Amino acid sequence: MPVKESSDELNPPVIAAEAVVALPRAARSAKDYLALAIATCGVGYLPLAPGTWGSLIGVGVYVSLRWNLFRPPSDTDPLAYLPSFLAAEFVVLVVIILAGIWAGSRAERALQVKDPGKVVIDEVAGQLMALLPVPLVMIGPWPIWVIASFLLFRFFDIIKPYPARRLESLESGIGIMADDIVAGMYAAGVLGAAILLTELT
After folding, report:
1. Stated pTM of the model
2. Would you put residue 46 in left (φ > 0), alpha (ψ -120 to 50) or beta?
3. Which of 16, 49, 76, 182 could in theory staple to 4 by disulfide, Cβ–Cβ 3.0 to 4.6 A?
4. What is the rounded CA–CA span in Å between residue 41 and residue 96?
5. 154 Ramachandran zone, left/alpha/beta (phi>0; psi -120 to 50)
6. Which residues, listed in sequence order, are joined to residue 14 by a DSSP beta bridge?
7. By the 8 A CB rule, do 198 and 145 touch?
């Protein structure tokens, strides 16, 4: 029977209900290699904790965006820069989700495994989702909130609260991406509430 893998460290491989690929393995095409490169983000083949490495890639994308797009001059109101930064963050997130659905689907076929453990683009997207509330912290120790977001996302990605675990069974790349996006939403909700409570007190 086919095996369903997972890039989450505490979720072991399980027997999948259905086969991902019924055809014999064919030679990989250039599109397959591109899909694998996107899906693994260069860290999926690391031997330990691929999901954590994928989350760290998401943190790196966020920090790069913030560093390059959200550095208003000291005499400028930071709120004026917030809408453009949030728009850029949202566009990047949508592009990664769409790329992840395509690459994840193709990676499943190339590797002939349901939700391959090497695929970590879903963790990148989920982590970026979890980081959405961080721009609410205009000044002060925003890196602390980035760390909190990382820890929260790893927690929710591993325990997979409803409906994340159910969404894993969706077809191909959609199933690969959906559970991590839900975990990211949970993390974002908790983080946003914590930020608002901190900012209001």
Report:
1. 0.83
2. beta
3. 16
4. 11
5. alpha
6. 4
7. no
